[in-house]
Every structure is written in structure tokens, then in C-alpha cells.
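Hi team, as promised in this morning's meeting, here are the two structures we talked about. I've kept the exact order from the run log so nobody has to guess. The first one is mostly here for context; it's the second one we should focus on when we meet again. Sequence first, then the predicted C-alpha cells.
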Amino acid sequence: MDVQATDFLGAFDNIDESQKLIKETVRKFVTEKFQPNITENFEKGHFPKEYIKEMGNLGLLGCNLTGYGCAGLDEVSYGLIMKELERGDSGLRSFASVQSSLAMYAIHAFGSENQKNEFLPRMAKGEIVGCFGLTEPDFGSNPAGMKTFAKKDGDDWILNGSKTWITNAPIANVAIVWAQTESGIRGFLIEKGTKGFSAPEIHHKLSLRASITGSLYFDNCRIPKSNMLEKTIGLKNALMCLNQARFGIIFGVLGAAEDCLNEALSYTKERIMFQKPLASFQLIQRKLAIMATEIAKGNLLAMQLAKLKHEKSIQPAQISMGKQNNVQIALDCARTTRDILGANGISGEYRCMRHMCNLESVYTYEGTNDIHILVVGQQLTGIPAFE
């Protein structure tokens, strides 16, 4: 029986040659360039910025957008890229997700031609970095309650407020910021160096340590009207961006789950307990089988959602189901692998504890597990249960 432990049902068997090449190229980059230093970078809380331009050269940034220097790849290729990046570390995938599916997508979908031509080609090359400012200190799961406000002043806008837990913020050259206005929530481009704008780093994280996270502060920031995303008309536009990134997470976390299962298989075959391999015990085989089964189901779910997205028929509740389900799968796989490895599982010499810590954040960000379940519940019943 010729099956892959991490794709037991062959969900990816029928990807085409170009998709296979993309997957192999990203896997080689992650294995040869990124992984050798990830333990040290995680321990130091360091994001390796030196790989940003290389990711741009490989066409990984904004890869499923068309025009403006973007690769214009299909949704499966995008998903496979996210999967391979997160196999390396959730922080690496988070950088690419924010750059591509939040910042670049917002400009691509809602920006003017001038904005697209000015920012997207350089962002695709990794020459400039973007971030996405939606979450506020008091408004996470309820972004509609945001207090950040932009007031019209002649031909300019004056922006006041704050955002927090913003990936890429301290290194971003441009921030996509969502703010209340007298005519509803709109999106704005805030460039680094704007007077009254600061983006300090958040320290002492115990998760996503190889990712850079910060806050955004706006103190009477004067923004020219040309920096407003002219096609934004409400919070739904920000949520459209989030759904792009959540789709990438659905694939991405499977890379972390796959890495954990591979580590568990390798460890249990080599580890001798009571004069025989740990893998020979029934309890261990049960845990391995459950992990493989859940990953196989997650793979099928991801590929079906990619099909729906390609057909432009995907619904937000379907993305919520996929994000909630696959993050839970990945987190359970990381926890199970840590359990199987025993005391060794907490060592940085192994990968499962790092994945586990990272996935605790992925479980919460871009919609918490509970919120996504309630989105599915609302779709099923027609009754919102958020309040």
C-alpha cells in the first residue's frame, strides 16, 4: 500500500506539474535557508528579515494576485506555498499572509490605479513591507466597535487612535489602517515616517517568537486624500481581506501538522522502550493513526475550499469552518507529538513544542476558534449568537 503518512487519502495526488514544482521550490527554500536557524531565531525572538527579498524573488509575495508584478498563481498553488512556509514556522507564513493577503490584497482590491502602481510591484519584490491595522486594544472579535477615527480636514484626513497585535508593524513601510469616519469605516494607507505615526514592537511573546509584532499609534496624523483606499465602503471590505488570509491559514497549518506527524513517526521508530521501538506500542500507534486521519481530512477540506474559491463561489462561513477545523487539527497534532516525545518534546532540538506555541496564537488570531464556530452556527440557523 503506497500512501503518504501526511496525505493518507491522496488529496494532493492530482496537483499538476507546475503546482508540484512550486511546492518543491518553496520546500527547498524553507529546508535549506530558513530551518537551519529557526531554533535560534525563535529563542531570540528574531524575525529573519534577510529572507523577505528572497521570497519576493521566488514570487511568493502577492502570488495569487494578478498584474502589478504579481505572479497570478491559482488558489491551490497559493495554498501549497502557505503550507510549506508554515512547515518551517508559523511566523514565516504569517509574514507572507499579511504581506500578500491583507496588505497587498487590500490595495489590489480597493486601491486606486496610482496606489496599485506605486506599492504593489515593490511589495511583490519584497522591497517594501506592509501591515494591516484592524484589531484594537478593546476591540478584537468586534472590530465594528473600533475607536480609531479619521476626520476630514480640507483635502486631508486627520487620524487618531491605535491598533495592536499587528504582524509586521515595526518593519512595515506602509500600514493599511481601518478607521471610523463620518460616512462609515474606510481604509487608509499610512506610510512610515508620517508625523504622529509610530509602530513600536511588542516584546515578551511566548508564541510566534520568530515573527515581528507591534502596535500602531496615530496622534493627529495628517494623511493626504490620495492615501485613502477609494473603493472601501465599510467593515465588509476589511473582512474580505481577512477571508483571503484565513484561506491561506487553512492550508498553512497543515504544514505544521505534517511536520509534527513526521517528527513523531521518526522519533517513535528510533526510540527504544522496553527493548522494542516505541512505535510498536498500541497506544502510540493509536495516536499516530488519529493524527494521520485528521490531517487527511484537513487536506480534503483545504482542497475543496480551494476549488470553491477558484470558482468564486466560496462563502465566508465555509472559510470559517476550514480555519477553525484545520487549526484545531494542527494544534492537536502538535500537542500529541509533544506528549509522545515526553521530556524531549519540550526541547528546542525538536520542533513540536515550537509549533504548539505558535499554533496557540493561530488558534486565536484572524477570528478566534469560538467566533468561527459561531459564524458556522449562524449560517446553519440564521440566528447570530455573537451578543
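And here is the second protein, the one for discussion:
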Amino acid sequence: MNTTRESIVKDMSLAPSGHLKIDWVKEHMPVLNRIREKFEQEKPFAGLKVSISLHLEAKTAYLAKVVQAGGAQVTITGSNPLSTQDDVCAALVEDGIQVFAKYNPDPAEYKSHFIKTLETRPDLIIDDGGDLVSILHSERQDLLEQVRGGAEETTTGILRLKALEKSGNLKFPMVAVNDAFCKYLFDNRYGTGQSVWDGINRTTNLVVAGKTVVVVGYGWCGKGVAMRAKGLGAKVVVTEIDAIKGVEAYMDGFEVMSMEEAAKVGDYFVTVTGNKDVIRGEHMAVMKDGAILSNAGHFDVEVNKVELAELSTSKRTVRKDIEEYQLKDGRKIYLLAEGRLVNLAAGDGHPAEIMDMTFALQAVSLAYVNEKYKELGNKVVNVPYELDEQVARFKLEALGIKIDHLTEEQREYLDSWTE
């Protein structure tokens, strides 16, 4: 491991490979390129420090460079120990961005990277899963004073932020990027749908067609996973705790049942709830021999690994990112990517064109909170619709698509209560 320019990365000699990856995604992120041009002219972050915690691969790296182009001094770390790409980290260091990250660090080192990222005393943060915010509000409150606010990427992170706000302890405004239309309609649905199956298929090299896929949770991510499983020829079962989403899944053509029932029929299981222990010991006890478990939620808590180990006599790695659990009754259950995000820990994450919109939202939201932080208050705030719509407009322009606009007469008609 090399420590270079006050950064901690695995190997600086990997930088050329990282540059190639970043150059590739840049070519496929036209909306973010448009934002970068704007930032280069206006320098909204001039003189400010920005700390970022996201899955540290090429698309995230390009976001960091866009924020840097806006005048910021950028420090970045990974938001998952298995999604960090060491060559990308090295490339960022060469580009003048401070990095504290490497692939698969031990838990103490992983935690230390968050701390070091915050010890730069940032003015603004971009968070994924609420890790930076959590540390700032618990063990490192001494670093809170300078933080103006930030933006949060994920469903899980927003849940944590809203709990913090509800308790009255949130100390600065955070923009809920995950709740923006251009995030959940495209990133959560189409991005997760494709990248989850990219990760599962490249890891297992097994057929999906004809098998039963159990999708645990039918939020926007679950909808995408179910849709893509159906496209691959699977029979899809959805489990839910929300009656409305259960009806929605049924109307979308999927079988809906409890996890107790679904556990008996599934070949593949994908958890996308943001909650813990949604697959537990009693479910594993009735699963088919050879069942494959995977998770697409932020933390590795959705599959209860402790109870899986308790049911087992042995565990071994049978293929990269596949752990085989030999159960006491002779069955085998396979867990992908240690129960961490399968699309990132065992794949490259969402397609670049999808993350183009999400990271454009992150960039403009960060500029928004920097401009408005004094009046936003210490709460979770939505991405303004104008910014959401602007990102969509840039995307359509990049695709060469034109849409209609209201005439003045139509505007007057919609604004009037008379005929």
C-alpha cells in the first residue's frame, strides 16, 4: 500500500488503467459534461472543501472531477469495502484529488478512511448511506462546525437522515437526491435492474431463464430487478410488507406471497428493502438445495449471515464472490458478494448513462445547498423541481430528442378555473 500526496491508496502504478476507465465513462455522461462546463465558468465551490463518500469506481471518480472543476478541494473515500476500484483511486490521486480508499480493507482501516476524509474539515459533503453524516453526529462532532450541508444518494441514507432530523439532532441541511424524479425513476429502476443482473450473471455464470426469482421488496429498485428478471425469462415472485405495493406487483404480472412461502420455491433471491433480516434462518431452513442469495440494499444486513452460519457445518469460497454454505441436512446455499451490494461488489454498478443523471443531480444539488444553506434549515430537503427538470432536459438534448411546449393559450386554460 502506498501513501501518496497525503492520500492512502493501494498502488499508484495502477493509475493508467484507472484513467482509461474514467475517460470511458466521461464519453458516456453528456449531462455531467454539461454541468462541468457550467462549473468551470462559474466556480460555485471556489475556496471550499468537499468530502465525498460513494462507491469508488469510474463514474464516481468523474463526479469528483466535476466538483473539482467547480473550484473545490475534493477528498473522497469509498462507501463499500468491496466496490472500491484501486486503479481508479490511483488515477484520482494523479488528478489532484485526495483519496482514502482501497479494495477490501479490514473493518478498522475502512472506518479510518471515513475519519480521514472528514478530518479535512469539509464545507460540503456528498454521502451514500449516511456514513459521513452518522460519524459527524456521533463520534466526531468536533468536525461539525464548518459543514454547510450536503447531498445524500440512497434510500437507506435518507431513512437515517430523516430519523436524525426527527430526533432534532440534524445539524445541517441535506438534499435528498434519492427522492428526485431523475434518480428513482431511472437510477433505482433501470440502473439497479440492469446492474444487479450484470453482477449476478457474471458471478454465477448460470442461466436465469426458467428459474424462479424472488424479489424481496417492490420499491423502485425492486421493480427494476423484477422487470429485468422477467426479461431474462424467469418466473418472478415478489414479497412485500406494504399492501399497496403488493397489489402493484400483482397488477404488474408477478406472483406475490410471503417470504415463508417464497423461500420454498426460489432459485435466486434478491433483497432490495433497506431493512435488516428480511431473509432469516427460518426461511433458509426451507430453501431449495442450491438456492442463491444476493442483496442489492446498501448494507450487508438484509440476509442474516449469522443465522445462515448457524445452520451450516462449513463454508468455503467456490468461485470469486460466491460463498457456499454446507447446511447440516446436506443442502447447499450460496451467498453472493458476502451479502453486500451485488451490483457493485460483484460488478461495475449502474450503467454510465444512468449515473449521468444521478451524478448531475448530485452536482447541482451540492451547488444549491451551498448557495441556500443559511435559509434551508437543519433538515432533509428535496431537490428543487427546476433542477430535476433541468437534468431531464439536458438528457433529452443529449439524446437529440425534442418535446413539445405549452402555448400561451394552453397555459391560460390550465391556470383558469372557468371554461
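Starting points for discussion:
The chain has two domains: 2-183+350-399, 191-345.
The CA atoms of residues 185 and 220 lie 7 Å apart.
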